[in-house]
Every structure is written in C-alpha cells, then in structure tokens.
C-alpha cells in the first residue's frame, strides 16, 4: 500500500506531467482565468487522463504486446483516448450543460492533448504491474488537475498585482511557470 501511495505522490508532485515532462502545457496556458472554469476543465481532464491512460495500459500490456503489435500503440492510444473523450463529453452534456457550452472546444481538444497520449505512453513503457499503472495514472491525472487550478488562481492574482508593463500577460505567466518548474525539478533531485 505504501508503494502505491508513493507512486501516486511521485506522479502528482515530483514528476509532474506539465511542469517536469512538459506535456499538456498548451492546456495550461489556454485555460481561462476564471477559477470556476479551470476547476471544470481540471475535473474533465482528470477523468479523461485517468481512464484513458489506464485503459491504454491494459490494451497495450494484454493485447498489443503479446501478439506482436506493439508498434501500433500510438495509433491505438489516440483512438482510445479520443473515443473516451467523446463518451465522457456525451455523459457530461446530460448532467452539466452549462459547463459544456462554456468549454465546448476545450473538452474535445483534451482527447488529443499531449498529456493524455504522453501519460499513456509513459505508463505502458515504464510501469510493470497493473496496480502501479493504476496509481501512476491517478497520480498523473491528479497532478495535471492541480497545476491547472493553481495556474488559474495564479493568473487571477497576477491580474491585480503591480507588474511592469514588459512582463504583463503571457510573459509573467511563463516566468512563473518556469520558477515553479525549477522547484519541481529540484524536488525530484532531492528524492
């Protein structure tokens, strides 16, 4: 149990998908400044990332690899992730119609997000057991959601701060992301 918890913490905080592996950075900077919108997008991203990476691991480990079709993993991963995104979108459409109208295109783009495919590839190639894959998928999805929400809150805070004109907008966001990324990489070096 402690090993599983360690994998979750390492995937979420130490080897964060966005800040250490640089997967899904476009989602980080294109999401809204609104904290509510970021929470909705983070929840949908968490569900899609977690389910697709675990399902892709199962398909790779128990179907593609044993029959010698491991070279098709990228095509299969994209197809599974896109299909799962559409299914989750249709389910969310029934229960959260206002959120769907607000993030219509963003929800579809999550299926082809580099974080979704990257986590699936990292999980399939590096994890050895099903329980480790489940923990890695959960931790990576949790880390992605935490970073989306944290940077939405940071953008709200930066909008009210007294920042020189040269650094306003995307410049200060990139500088902030770089500083946080260095902290995460430094934390990875200590462990």
Can you walk through the features of this model?
It is a single chain. The protein has about 190 residues and is mostly helical. It has one domain. Helices cover about 80% and strands about 0% of the residues. The radius of gyration is 17 Å and the shape is globular.
Number of domains: 1
Order of helices and strands: HHHHHHHHH
Summarize model confidence as the mean pLDDT: 82
Largest beta-sheet details: none
Radius of gyration: 17 Å
What share of the residues lie within helices?
A: over 70%
> Which structural class matches the secondary elements?
mainly alpha
Q: How many DSSP-defined strands?
A: 0
Nutshell version of this structure?
The protein has helices at residues 2-14, 25-30, 35-64, 73-95, 97-102, 104-110, 114-126, 130-160, 170-190. By secondary structure, it is mainly α.
